[in-house]
Amino acid sequence: MNTAPRRDERILVIDDQSLAQGFFRFALEQLGYQNIFLAERANAALNLCRDNQFDLIICAHNQQQGKDGFQLYEEIKAKGLQQLSCAIIFISAETDPSLVHSVIELQPDEFLAKPFVIKDLQLRIERVLRRKQQLREVYQALDAHDDQKALAAIDKQLADARLHKLFPLLLRLKGDVLLSQNDYEVAEKFFTAMLNIQPFSWARMGLVRCYLALGKEQQAFTELEALLDRSESRLFALDLLAELEFKQQHYQQAQQHLLEAAELAPRNMFRQQKLLQLSRINHDYENQYRAARDMVKYARYSMYEQPDLYLTLARASIDYALSVEDEEQSSRLNRQATVSLSTVQRQYANGNHAVLESQQQVLQARLLYLQDHKDKAQALLNSLEPLQKIESVEGALDRAKALHEVGLSQASADLFAQISQHCQQQLADPLFNAYLQQEQQERLAMRLGPRELNNNAVTLYKHGNWQEAFDAFKLAFRVMPKNAGIALNLWQTLLTSPRPLCAPSSKQQLLDQCQQLIESSTLKPEQQQRYQQLKHKYGNEHA
């Protein structure tokens, strides 16, 4: 017989397994909870969250169909479907670090790994419900966006010694409110005072945000270096270091920080998008492709799934394929782009048809160019209506790149100018602006597409046009810095030229960069033979 006192908290359990639902219902009833709602599918849970305010949601990650628990929790939080006073207990049989870090980044009240016993569940439930109840006044003020009322409620509870166990959380909430008010000088003093009491990671993270807002970048950098060493603040530090390095135009360092962050918590779509943008700026087509692929992978069934993700993957596949020499790898990337386009056609045929169709035709033209059907690609691009209005900046940029690749340089330049003007008016994302400016400058400097640029340079080299060949190889290496074949051609040109082609310091730097890539790559037999011959002949002097 159940003798637990009756509780009236409203609890939603989300789990697609009937046995698990039965277990949760039994366990909760044994603990005295009566208002229990069950949902076996994410969409049913979302509907319940729209129609009801719960005191507690127990969300299981492992779902057999549609959204998983992470995607569901992410949507509930992003769309504000529950008040802050609602406690979240996230449950998962999967404890892979990448999932755990991704979940923790969303800040559930508790993370519980399966299997567990009723006693453990009871402990977690009672702890989070008690905490939420004690802080209800604070959460109600925060939900109402009344910062002054929230601060007053926090200070009131901080004055009650009986609530001493809640003081760290109350102080952290106070810091969050001060940051939301954008009064960074007051917030800076608060976080500094907290750190004088105890080295709270959240206080150090708040201080970093103040430093960045106040233009104290060196102080922010110093604090972030320390935060890297703590597991609970490493993601935060990597993201903010990437932001700092980008502002200082240290794009390689910024990308490296984001690569580490994305490896820790790959489900963050905004981080993956930033990584993709930085990879493009660095001409790192492989990581651009991986970021686009991961975005499609983790967005499947989520609120982020949309045709643009598949178009982005198709574009990244083509960019990557154009930069590699391996025919098998190029074919795989070609197939990936084709599959992505087919997905758009199959899943989004009833959407904004005209805009999507235009972007798909541009991608079809780029695929034709990739397959060495340049004339067909040019004809397809010529058949498209001019862009009177830019509805997709990425789509417009892709068309500008395609026009340049097939030799329609003036049309490409005109479209780049149109995109730049549009972005200035719309205050586009700084990462995208940096990439746009770089792409525009590089395309203006190249009469030919990247692939033809190297081939043309080879012809110039064979005819003894050393300086023109060097300039062409150097530009090709700049836009395809991981192409070992281009690196070998540039290295050979620098070694064999009968006259200086650049300053000695620049020459040695280029020789070192090229040789480092060549040594770390798998060359074709002909390339390997040529490299060894050059290395043997010029090794003592340069290699």
TrEMBL record:
Coiled coil: 118-145
Source species of the chain: Arsukibacterium indicum
Cross-referenced InterPro entries: Sig_transdc_resp-reg_receiver, ST_Response_Regulator, TPR_rpt
Domain called Response regulatory: residue spans: 10-129
Record key words, sorted: Coiled coil
Alphabetical list of PANTHER family matching this protein: TWO-COMPONENT RESPONSE REGULATOR (PTHR43228), TWO-COMPONENT RESPONSE REGULATOR ARR22 (PTHR43228:SF1)
Pfam families: Response_reg (PF00072)
Superkingdom to which the source organism belongs: Bacteria
Name of the protein: Response regulator
